[in-house]
Fold:
Amino acid sequence: RKCVQCLQPPGGSLWIRGRWCPLGLTRLRKKAECHFVNGTEHVRYVLRCNHNREEIVSFDSDVGEFVAMTELGWPEAEYWNSQKEILEYRRGQVNSYCRHNHKAFQSFLVSLSSEFEPEMIVYPSKMAPLGHHNLLVCSVNGFYPGDIKVRWFLNEQEETAAVVSTGLISNGDWTYQILVMLEMTPKHGDVYTCQVEHSSLQRPVIWDWKVQSESAQSKMLSGVGVLTLGLSFFGVGLIVHKRSQKGDIVWGKH
Structure:
């Protein structure tokens, strides 16, 4: 079979045609990246060609030529590096694509950062009485960019040793979510606080969980009745409330 070069039809798929393809490749997918350091002081253009979700060949403007990532990519890299027009075109993408669109990229990212503030909720992983080991979950969702700091406090003292996190999880729409959990044994009077810091927020967002007494738990459970099943994420003996950094309290979530 004959192949020549990568062509990009609508949808982002790359078709190989013209020059011989060793393993009968008929379709590749490519992804172009622009990397900026100190604005446009240093700009790097990277093109990645993938087959069956595996990167087989790439072009890096810092290197200046195509590099095979697998044995399957060797013939392609060798051929594209022999084509002067293809190399010059890819090298020129640093200016014609990356630098040219830098302002548009920046305004888009700023827009995303200002529009996608994190939403959060705190809940225990299971229903458990006082004095029994449990896990408090601080769920933060729908934020962009991905840089975020989630911290746990017990009675205003930061907890670090008993904290575990899922790490960033992509939502598939430019936004992210993360779960940060605290191992705890609730005692009467304890206040557990989850604090979130993000560039889209003017100040940190804070949620408190306050442990109630046994009698208060009983009254709360009897008052909840049949709603307990639907609201089980509130946990036994715990009330969630949200407060600003200044201390204003709003019960519930918005």
Notes: The first helix runs from residue 74 to 81. The longest strand covers residues 28-37. The chain has two domains: 5-100, 114-251.
